[in-house]
Amino acid sequence: MARFTPDKEVAYDLRMTLSNPPPSTPAGARAIVYGGSMAGLMAAGVLSRHFERVTLVERDRFPNGPMPRKGVPQAQHVHGLLTRGMDILAGIFPGIREDLESAGAEFLDVVETTAMFGAGSWRPRFHSGVSAASVSRLVLEWVVRQRLQALANVRILDGREAMGLKTSGDRTRVTGLQLQVPGGGQEETLEAELVVDTSGRGSRTPQWLEALGYPRVEETRIHVDVGYASRTYRKPSGFEPGWRSLALSPQLPRERRIGILQDIEDNRWLVLVGGWLGDSLSTADDAAFLEFARGLPQPHLYEAIKNAEPLGPIHLYRFPHSQRRHYERMSRFPEGLAVVGDAFCSFNPIYGQGMSTGAMQAEALGECLHQGVRGASERYRRRAGEILEGPWALATTGDLGFPEVQGKRPPGFGLMSWYGNRFQQLAGYDEEAMRTFARVQHMIESPTAMFSPRMVFKVLTVRPDKAAQTPGPLPLAVLRARATG
Ligand SMILES: Cc1cc2nc3c(=O)[nH]c(=O)nc-3n(C[C@H](O)[C@H](O)[C@H](O)COP(=O)(O)OP(=O)(O)OC[C@H]3O[C@@H](n4cnc5c(N)ncnc54)[C@H](O)[C@@H]3O)c2cc1C
Questions:
Q1: Which SUPFAM superfamilies does the annotation name (predicted)?
Q2: Is residue 391 lining ligand 1, measured as CB closer than 6 Å?
Q3: Which residue has its alpha carbon closest to ligand 1 atom 48?
Q4: Contact between residue 121 and residue 145 where contact means Cβ atoms under 8 Å apart
Q5: Residue closest to 262 by CA, chosen among 93, 147, 138, 96
Q6: CA distances from residue 204 to 161, 165, 201 in whole angstroms, order as listed
Q7: Tens of pLDDT, residue by residue, the chain (485 residues)
Q8: 334 lines ligand 1 (CB under 6 A)
Q9: Ligand 1 pocket residue status of 71, Cβ below 6 Å
Q10: Best mutation site among 79, 197, 198, 207 for ligand 1, i.e. most ligand atoms within 8 A of its Cβ?
Q11: 16 CA distance to ligand 1 centroid (A)?
Q12: Exposed/middle/buried for 237, CB within 10 Å: 0-12, 13-18, 19+?
């Protein structure tokens, strides 16, 4: 099997399964999705089961391999696909786990194999049943794109930019999309019964709708000024620290810096150092990167990379604010239009929710189409708004804990933050709490699981002194021996 090397275009030997035969009783003849990143690929995969023909429009020219491209600059940074997101992805593209494995990904139990330092202590490590793919975002997107390309009723139109919506004369219904080759090439209009915007946080749907006479969509922004600096390293041979990945999280809001080392395909590490409220690197400087890593709450990340071989430059990314567009609240909205992914809601990336929430929305869109295309936009935007509630609350509770971060604190915010902090302390030594936390974080269990009577009792009687302060990550071999002995 061909493998990815950072500066070569290669083709993977994937099983090009035609997983979705075109629908026998389609909801409609034609759908268009514009924006060919993760949300767009998943939405197009879902729609291929409901429409005779689906066209995916992407402004970039897709590279022939897991290569970076202009429209997705974040792809060179750590990306974790949560278990829930992976489950949905595997529902859209059956067999994709195996395809990812063929491309070098490994599915690992996150609690067992990641050494996590959070809330001032090392988390217990054990087999939790919560697993995630150890894979770079570049390979993930590339594998998903190949699966979409293999669907018989999907056409991919890359190198085309969506320029505006085509509507019915009374503007109550979107009937197509205007396209152009970027840079002012020839214009073209495609007709469709459903147009889906997956063009990311810079989506121009709010302006397009306003120009068509619709109200401006309300937007909530939480200014977090998060900065990422990421670099890929070769995993040093013989380095056996007892963990596969490493996550050093700050105690919010007292600390602001985070460090993550993600084990990715082909014996590489993707290392991120960053922080909230401007506490991040502003230049891609080798010495400053290492110095930042050295300043993290624990030395393990620095120790791992200080003599490791970098495989490329340092990439920087500045994320000014989380952004939630309240399409669900609009008093009027055209038929035939849906917004999925970051175009609807773009989360602080540190919480790793974007792709999974996009997957949940894509899945919901499919469910709304079971009753037909008519009314689907309306059903979908309300459902999508509901889907966002939980992840948005989870992400913003952490961010709003910083007194400097502006934004409306919901009623009971102080109590929730207090409970959340105590829960984190509990997860420092209690396996049940740690498992619950991992399941909630990976969206396979509702946050209410953290509030069961049993958990509340444990949280109220938490003993922070019981958490591991010194031993750091335990070798896997030791854990396995303990488990079997
Ligand atoms: C630094 C960083 C780290 C992140 N880490 C994680 C993580 O760990 N886990 C996670 O789940 N999520 C993470 N995210 C979020 C994740 O990247 C997105 O949620 C994910 O890419 C899905 O976004 P999307 O497809 O909606 O939009 P995007 O990924 O932004 O893609 C939009 C696409 O639309 C195209 N496009 C834009 N305008 C047009 C147009 N007019 N016509 C045609 N095409 C157009 C672009 O070229 C691009 O391909 C992170 C984000 C950042 C910034």
A1: FAD/NAD(P)-binding domain (SSF51905)
A2: no
A3: 71
A4: no
A5: 138
A6: 12, 10, 9
A7: 334 343 333 333 333 334 455 677 888 999 999 999 999 999 999 999 999 999 999 999 999 999 999 999 999 999 999 999 999 999 999 999 999 999 999 999 999 999 999 988 999 999 999 999 999 999 999 999 999 999 999 999 999 999 999 999 999 999 999 999 988 878 999 999 999 999 999 999 999 999 999 999 999 999 999 999 999 999 999 888 899 999 999 988 989 999 999 999 999 999 999 999 999 999 999 999 999 999 998 999 999 999 999 999 999 999 999 999 999 999 999 999 999 999 999 999 999 999 999 999 999 999 999 999 999 999 999 999 999 999 999 889 889 999 999 999 989 999 999 999 999 999 999 999 999 999 999 999 999 999 999 999 999 999 988 876 644 555 444 445 444 54
A8: no
A9: yes
A10: 79
A11: 25
A12: exposed
Pocket-testing residue among 55, 196, 199, ligand 1, by greatest number of atoms within 8 A of Cβ: 199
Residue 228 Cβ inside 6 Å of ligand 1? The answer reads: yes
CA of 300 to the centre of ligand 1 (A): 30
Task: Report residue 325 as tokens.
Answer: 């567009």
Query: From atom 50 of ligand 1, which residue's Cα is the shortest distance away?
Result: 349
Residue extents of the structural domains in the chain: 28-79+136-218+326-395, 225-320, 413-466
Is there a contact between 294 and 33 (Cβ–Cβ < 8 Å)?
no
Residue 395's Cβ-count burial label (10 Å; 0-12, 13-18, 19+) is buried
Best probe residue, ligand 1, of 32, 38, 61, 177 (max atoms within 8 Å of C-beta): 38
**Nearest residue to 16 via CA among 103, 97, 137, 99:** 99
Atom of ligand 1 nearest to the CA of 35: 34
Closest CA to 153 of 19, 42, 62: 19
For residues 277 and 426, give the distance between their C-alpha atoms in angstroms, rounded to a whole number: 27
Helix runs in 103-239, H state only: 110-113, 137-149, 205-211
Any bridge partners for residue 173, and if so which?
335
Using the mean position of ligand 1's atoms as its centre, give its distance from the Cα of residue 427 in Å.
32
Hey, what CATH class is 28-79+136-218+326-395 in?
alpha beta
What is the Å distance from ligand 1's center to 298 Cα? 31
The whole-angstrom separation of Cα 138 and Cα 154 is 22
Report the nearest atom of ligand 1 relative to the CA of 346. Answer: 19
Probe ligand 1: pick from 249, 355, 388, 441, max atoms within 8 Å of CB?
A: 355
Q: Using the 8-state DSSP alphabet, how is residue 124 labeled?
A: P
